[in-house]
Predict the 3D structure of the following.
Amino acid sequence: DDDSWWAPGALAGAADLLDRHPALVAVTARIVVEPAGTEDPIVEELRDSPVPGPGWLPGPALGSFLAAATVLRTDAFRRAGGFHPRLWLGGEEELLAADLAAAGWWLTYAEHLTIHHQPSTVRDATRRRRDGIRNTLWFTWLRRPVRPALRRTLHLARTVPRDTASLRAFAEAAAALPWVLRERRVLPPEVEGRFRLLEDSQRRSKARCYT
């Protein structure tokens, strides 16, 4: 991304992990927010990920990733279809991660690798929140079973601000129901289990909050 840069040696370190572990598809680095030099709140969630992983994995197993802070295996990325063209800025990483996991790949967090992120000061925060809510709903109904999808939808409905942006997000999500149902592919049970383990941390998350 144009607001992020990798620490010296971090990209090479991520590539080395991918070379050493053939079933590893994504390596996510520790994120440092500039100019303060503080750790991004999401890092704690990555570090303490509840997702179980195989013994060979070089770090905590992840259910998803942050594109700006992640090095991906390009052939797997292309075979999975890349990012969904309808999703942008929210949900697209989660959807791709789910499809990669369903194809047998693993994702990990690498504490020893660092990327710096200096967020733009001219972002449209309201639009980002609207798109984030809408895309989260789209991902949820594209891949999660009915009960977890309902649970996440109701949680969002209870917790997002009661304003025009939230109303538009839900309206846009509902209007897309025909293509969402057409493209819906429920995750295999073992992958769905990983996402289910992440529900509690997602509900408590300050980094993923839409308020």
User: Anything to note?
Assistant: The first helix runs from residue 10 to 20.
